[in-house]
Amino acid sequence: MSLPRRLAFIDVESTGAHPVRDRITEIAILRVEDGMLVNRWESLVNPQTPIPPLIRQITGISDEMVAGAPSFGELADQVQALLAGHVFVAHNARFDFGFIKNAFARLGRDFDAPVLCTVKLSRALFPEHHRHGLDALIERHGLHCGARHRAMGDTEALWQFVQLAQARFEPEVLQRAVERAMKAPASPPGLVEGVLEALPDEPGLYFLHAEPEAPPPGRSDRPLFVGRAASLRARVREHFAGSTRKGKDAELRERTRRVEWIATAGELSALLLEAELVRRLRPPSNRLPEEGDEAFALRLIENRRRAPIYERVPVVGTDPASWTGLHGLFRNKREAENRLRELAMLYRLCPRRLGLEPGPAGPCSAFQARRCAGVCARRETAAEHDARLAGGLASLGVKPWPWPGAVVVSERNAHSGREAWHVFDQWCHLGSVARREELPTIGRERRFDIDTWRLLGRWFAVPAHAAAAEPLP
């Protein structure tokens, strides 16, 4: 037979998406043996914790509805008996399996079963389609679902889908698809079951931790790695896609025991949050930005005879609109000196006058190598030399802000409905809010940050991103 003889179709509703922190609020099970439905069971479950408003809105299950329902501990024996000896069948099955397994684990009990995922089954049988969520299957195949986002309604839709597949495909084709749908995904050995499946298909940040549980409040919870993704689910799975990987991914796979995430309204929200958190948390597996707290620009000192002929002017926390006579923008002394050496080569500048080469008066080493125009050997005036330096530095400075004032950039995730509104002015991030009507609460003080400047420079360099910016009223 192309399908396993004994199947248990199951769906759980819960207080959230995390199989460790969140709790089950409803379970439905359909037992099928040799293609015949032999048992139908469902129950609300008291999660013993409040149900968040968004979850109440999606599922229709309220705190009042579950107040008198049994806890999972009271239902555990019955659930285990119903699932015993059957293949665990669910949509995005490792998610539901993770909730059941963790619910048993909290009781000190083990649970395991072969798992068949109907998402994978749909992908294997209908590869021409891109969407394989339950809503897509219901619409595509005309399935009946009496109550979407309720456990029994969703479970009945899955049973209909499997019946349809069995009727439409030859046994050997269906068997190959079932084998693919029962293959366990690659996952770090110490990661809790169901966490990868709980990750949303949304943009945001993810955090890979070496500790299986979060520390008590007040203690540091520094992750191994902080990453950004257009799809959290797809990107995190890439980290653990193969056990033979080498390098950083292989090390992270072995060390990761916990995955946390923050979903965002869009890519820009994730970029801004990533820059802030990587700088603050300094995860050991991230490529960390160099310290930029002392970022500065250069101001040439007129009629200066002895090196250096410029002064460093700190810019962090200042208003770019107030800058006058500043050239270039550098994170630290080493970055400035490297750039000055490049300019010296391009414009035949004197490294001694730039303060890059010590030594007595007289021709510098670059002049002797014919790389200096000769201000040190009196072959040109200091004014001529410094004019070329100013021209070179001007090309390195902060580009003019493209708008006459502050602009707002909006983001909205169509799947989650999450929104964000970001306000920028003179390459400074003034603030972000989750609703447009909150924009007046954002202050107008500009405080320059070199990482934000570089981030916005890359973002607004994309014409579509620049076109989406609206002048702030």
Structure described in brief:
The protein is of the alpha+beta class and 473 residues long.
Summarize the topology.
Layout: E1 6-14, E2 24-33, E3 36-44, H1 53-59, H2 63-66, H3 72-83, E4 87-90, H4 93-106, E5 115-117, H5 118-125, H6 134-141, H7 151-168, H8 171-181, H9 195-198, E6 204-209, E7 225-229, H10 232-239, H11 248-255, E8 258-263, H12 267-281, E9 296-300, E10 310-314, E11 327-330, H13 333-347, H14 365-368, H15 382-394, E12 407-412, E13 419-425, E14 428-433, H16 450-460, H17 463-468, E15 470-471
Helix pairs in contact: 5-8, 6-7, 12-16
The main pleated sheet reads as: 5 strands, mixed
N-end to C-end Cα span: 67 Å
Average pLDDT: 90
Find the structural class using helix and strand composition.
Answer: alpha+beta
The fraction of residues in strands falls at 15-25%
Q: How many helices?
A: 17
Q: Roughly how much helix do the residues carry, as a percent range? A: 25-40%
Sequence of strands across the biggest β-sheet: 3-2-1-4-5
Q: How would you sum up the global shape?
A: elongated
- Number of separate strands: 15
Low-confidence stretches: none
C-alpha Rg (nearest Å): 31 Å
Describe the protein's architecture and organization.
- It is elongated, with a radius of gyration of 31 Å.
- The strands form 4 sheets. Strands 3-2-1-4-5 form a 5-stranded mixed beta sheet, with helices on both faces. A 4-stranded antiparallel beta sheet has the order 14-13-12-15, with helices on one face. A 3-stranded antiparallel beta sheet has the order 7-6-8.
- The protein is built from 17 helices and 15 strands.
- The relative contact order is 0.08.
- Helix 5 packs across helix 8 (171-181) and helix 6 packs across helix 7.
- By secondary structure, the chain is α+β, with helices and mostly antiparallel strands.
- A hairpin with a 2-residue loop joins strand 13 and strand 14.
